[in-house]
Amino acid sequence: MVLTHGLLIIWLLFYRLKNTTWPNPGSLKPLYLVLWVCGVYSLLAHKEFRFLYPILPLSFIYAGKAIQQMKLAHARWYNVMWFIVILPHVLFAAYFGLLHQRGTIAAMGTLRDDAENISSVDFLMPCHHAPGYAHLHVGKHIPMRHLDCSPTSDNTMDEADVFHENPLQFVKNTYKTAIPSHIVLYQDMGDKLAPYLREKKFKKIASHFHMYLPHVHDRRMSEYVDVYKRDV
Known about the structure:
- By secondary structure, the chain is an alpha/beta fold.
- It has helices at residues 8-11, 29-41, 56-73, 75-98, 103-113, 159-165, 167-174, 187-192, 194-199, 214-217; strands at residues 121-124, 144-146, 182-186, 202-209, 224-230.
- It is built from 10 helices and 5 strands, in the order H-H-H-H-H-E-E-H-H-E-H-H-E-H-E.
């Protein structure tokens, strides 16, 4: 995958620059740097949007120049263009800020409300899918365990992969002695482990909406995030 689709909105403005006369012959050098960074980073096996953040200010320079030319050439449609650009961003901000992947944060609220009954919490879900202590403001230390996904030198499966490969065997091996008081996991995984959870006296105390079409994003995710509490 080429790591540029996050920049397409900005680059769509660059077509206005093709006939631009630049006062300095070196004015396009930052643009060449942007293209070089995108090309090199696209060769990496591991890609993330944050890798492109350093080149966004350089891209904004050319996007601003293009917007200026569009205003001069199409003054009548300039305000309409801004409405077309801003409205989708407002809608996207509302959706991604209020609805998308909100379940894990809501689950932290459930844990806060039940903090006095928590001895430890295990998050049985992929790495980095749930926040940590920044969302658990209580007056005591609560041990929290997230599945480990640290890179391995011998290309073996990490802990998160092992869990999703055989979740029932994983929990049987992990909880031979110490068992957490609370478990947070995706709904589909909770359904798979339902017999084991009942055997260990876990009861679902909350189910929070997380996202639409979860399997399009990650087959290990679900539409809801569930919180289980052990009744002892």
